[in-house]
Design a protein that fits this description.
4-stranded mixed β-sheet; 42% helix; nuclease; single chain; 129 residues; tRNA binding; Ribosomal Protein S5, domain 2; ribonuclease P activity; Ribsml_uS5_D2-typ_fold_subgr
Length: 129
């Protein structure tokens, strides 16, 4: 389970991350990363001000194209664990107020947890360059 401070729950932040964030993809996922644009916390919109005080926040998009409800739930769980594994490694330095949206592609339903961790890590690294 992902800690509450790392969950992206704001609809406004989801939209802003997808619209303004950097997008990188792999065979199994597409990752949108929005690092707040380097602005100071007081210059950011209210949802981003709240996000800048916590660690990186992550949200998921798992559509019906991935599979039925059981498959989507299983894929969501694997992706949350993949993001948590990337956070626990500590190799990636997330700027303050970073928001990450991970969109699962149909291939993610058949991918192993190790493949998903590698793809999520790779996409986040490329998006933060």
């Amino acid at each position: 389970m992902l800690a509450p401070q790392h969950r992206l729950r704001s609809t406004a932040l989801f939209g802003q991350t997808i619209r303004k964030g950097r997008k990188k993809g792999s065979r199994t996922v597409v990752v949108h990363v929005f690092a707040g644009g380097g602005a100071r916390a007081e210059e950011l919109p209210v949802p981003l001000q709240e996000a800048s005080t916590a660690g990186p926040r992550m949200g998921l998009v798992v559509s019906k194209a991935v599979g039925n409800a059981v498959t989507r739930h299983d894929t969501s769980r694997k992706l949350r664990n993949a993001f948590r594994a990337v956070l626990d490694e500590g190799e990636i330095e997330f700027p303050s107020g970073t928001c990450v949206v991970i969109r699962a592609l149909p291939a993610s339903a058949r991918a192993s947890s190790e493949e998903l961790v590698a793809d999520v890590r790779s996409c986040i690294r490329r998006a933060l360059r």
